[in-house]
Amino acid sequence: MWFLPVAIIVFTIIVAFPLSKYMTKIMEGKYRAPGIVRWIEERLDTGEQDWKQYTIALLVFNTALFIYGYVILSLQPWMPLNPLHRGLLSPTTIFMTAISFMTNTNLQHYSGDQHFSNFSQIFFCIANFFLSAAVGLCALTGIIRLFRGQKKIGNFFVDMWRVVVYIFLPVAFVVSLVFVQQGMPMTYRSAYQVNTLEPTAMGATDSGQAKQQTIVVGPLAAFVPQKMLGTNGGGFYGMNSAHPMENPTALTNFFTTFAMMIFPFCLVLMYGRMLGRFRHALVIFAVMLVMFIGTIVWAIGFDTLRPNPGLTAHPDARTYTIADANAPGGKRLLALPAVAGLPVDQHLGNLEGKEMRFGTSAGATFAAITVDVTCGAVNAEHDSLTPMASVSPMVGMWLNCIFGGKGVGMINMLLFLVIGIFIAGQMVGRTPEYLGRKIGGREMKLAMIALLVHPIMILMPTGIFAATTWGSGATSNPGPHGFSQMLYQFSSASANNGSAFDGLGVTYGFYNNTSPAPEAKQWDIATGLVMLFSRFLPIIAPIALAAGLGMKKVAPFGPGTLRDDTLTFAFLLGGTVIIIGALLFLPVAALGPLAEHWGPFPFGG
Amino acid sequence: MMRYISKSVLLLFLAVVICCGIYPGVVWAIGHIFFPAKAEGSLLKGPDGQVVGSKLIAQPFTKDEYFWPRPSAASYDGSASTSSAIAASNYALRDRVARQLGPIVKYQSGPKAGQLVAPDVEQWFQQDHFQGAPGIVAQWADMHNELATAWVNADPTHGAYVDAWAKAHPDTVAQWIKSNPSTPQPKAADLAVVFFENFSKENPGRFPSAVTHTGADGKSTTAIEPVKDGSDVQSIFFDMWRQDHPDVALQNVPGDFVTTSASGLDPDITLESAEFQLDRVASKWAADTKRDPATVRAEIEQILQKNASAPFDGLAGEKLVNVLEVNLELRDRYGAP
């Protein structure tokens, strides 16, 4: 039960220490690449940039990446590697998908196995996997250099090249070898048609013959490593890492989970190494790790250690007083009888929407981790998690800093850190300082902008959709869980996560689809915009913040200085994250998963 | 600015060539040199040498001679993986599981220990009382409007049956339209609940089900008729029967046997689920091959044990068997079912 999560965490931490050292070496430019590679690197160099130039270069490159993605997807019907003749996706889906992959979100309103050709899988997905992840890592590197007081913070294009070629590629290659050995397909073929062992069991075609089984395959062993390493999470198949081709064994699941955690773990340590404040980084790491373990234990506790409450007995009859305009006094009583249990052996926990081969607690563990590190791949159906267990992934997305995505998770934590120090400064009546530099009004404003984008981008559209048929026309589960589906979708979009409650009807499919999900266009456009804002504002504002902070004079270390490498500081930081997170999101949690947990069970139907 | 644009394009170009061209190509080459079968999707061949599927992808089995995989929300379509996405709180989950359980659940203790509950469900259904009130089918439709509607939409013959009923009951339909003025021209699905209420009154202890008759000319015809027993009654009304008999001890069914997987293509079942199916499988093969049931059972048990393995040697989970591999072995040993 606990072996799997413990083994994964311990293994990742052990790898993170040396790997973060290597990454520091790369990002400090101390690695000299062999001839031709360095020659190319020099071709990309436009010279040292200040923070504004660096940010502009970042935005220009992302614009290019968006256009590239949009064009590649639009060309799908005319490109090679498409023997199944996948057609043109709906324009809104292409818009949403191009943004989704560019922003490292990888929220998918399409199903890879039904809508993408291998050409799109390779040239759209894999390209974005490497590049969008590198953008976040470069942003963090830029901020670290600004914190060090550097005016010129290196060159964005050179940084990108180093991240992609010297860091991501070698690690992805090693992981791909494990995957291909374990039986993950690696082929340019698209699908097999087979007659199954009991041919009639597949049903019959219109002409009365036994249906064949279509088995979609593809270049998975090259696709999946960077999907996870870049905390991208956009699945080759609709069901992502739950699909047996995309995650064939318990060992691939172990390395899949490891791959999404490793770089977020490394980046915190890299932050400390590059700043020369390793102890401080270790404190941040510890705070993150405690919350990380908390979300995993929560998910396992409510999903693996307990049966699915939809099938068990609920022996107490309950009565609710509910508002009813037609009843005398405006209220009436609703009586719910006791419910008898179904004879199902549930000692393995909630198995609806779980795969068997990964291990008993693998689904819940993965669900918590994939949101903590904002990967968004799933190996279980989050929609079918028990209501309380589904709080864990939501909290991961709402806080968005429990290690968090490539670079941006650490950046989010820095925002909480600045705010925590500010609050502490207010409490003791001292000017707040970080890294010896005074936090002023400009810094606080920028931090608040970056921090508030996230709740606004979740709560506002969720409210709008919940109040209109845009939302109610898409939900597939009744009652509070339907609300959770909408809430989850926007949380996932804003946290740049990409996992989803898959029952939500958001798939338009091909442009000529005659029966798309009725509200799919609205969801495409709304989530597309949310992802865009929630990606770039929390990158740009912190860079500006770091630039301002970095230029200030360093105050000498005195007896009144708030030490940032102590247990007290850890409590301050963890407390800030949890209190702010609870203030922002507890009310909405009460409407969704908590209402579902304590409300009538089962519901509707 | 122009320099940034040109460098962006150059970086993009280089990344595409390296990450989308060279890197997958190298992995492809390594895969095909060292693990060619795995790299092509772990395909398995059947008794006639033809490919019958992939070791990794579940396929459907319905014959009693074979072990059955977990239920699939994707209908075992290897090109459309999907989960049920049904929330624990959604009644649809309990309903789906209860329908699967109804025909197979057995008593655990008491005088009928080991016997199926299905005959008792049918008998209870024919009494037509639920929670002390008459009209089981009417109560079912009232409590679960969506299920009633789903029944009408499930098959064209169901819709036609309701249409025919509506034509024969113009007064009831007119009454319904009066109380639902927003739907002046109701379709069959709109009338689902009132149809079942009326049906229950006219056919107490009956449910509309497909019945196949063989005519004098040997041709068989299928029609919807009120029936008092059969698989529809056993499955649809098992949950209500259970609510009327909450304290009866029943044998538990393995969890993975009645829950859908995340991909809809989970190729494995727990060894527990296989053992649960063993009696059915073994007795059927014994009958087919006219051999001693106990010997066949022991042989198949051996096949299961040989194929069973647990994730991380049992450190992270329970023993599982791959359904297709086991069934292929059964097919090899005993011939075509």
Q: Can you put this structure into words, describing what you see?
A:
The complex is a heterodimer of chains A (605) and B (337). Chain A has 605 residues and is mainly alpha-helical. Chain A has one domain. Chain A has 18 helices and seven strands. Chain A has helices spanning 3-27, 35-44, 51-74, 91-102, 112-115, 118-147, 156-182, 220-229, 250-275, 278-303, 362-372, 391-399, 408-428, 441-467, 469-472, 480-494, 520-551, 567-598; strands at residues 191-194, 213-216, 318-323, 331-336, 344-345, 433-434, 437-438. In chain A, a hairpin with a 7-residue loop joins strand 3 (318-323) and strand 4 (331-336). Chain A is globular, with a radius of gyration of 25 Å. The model of chain A has no long low-confidence stretch (mean pLDDT 94). By secondary structure, chain B is mainly alpha-helical. Chain B has three domains: 2-40, no CATH class; 44-84 and 260-334, no CATH class; 91-203 and 229-244, no CATH class. Chain B has a two-stranded antiparallel sheet. Chain B starts with a helix and ends with a helix. The model of chain B has no long low-confidence stretch (mean pLDDT 94). Strand 5 of chain A pairs parallel with strand 7 of chain B, so a sheet runs across the interface.
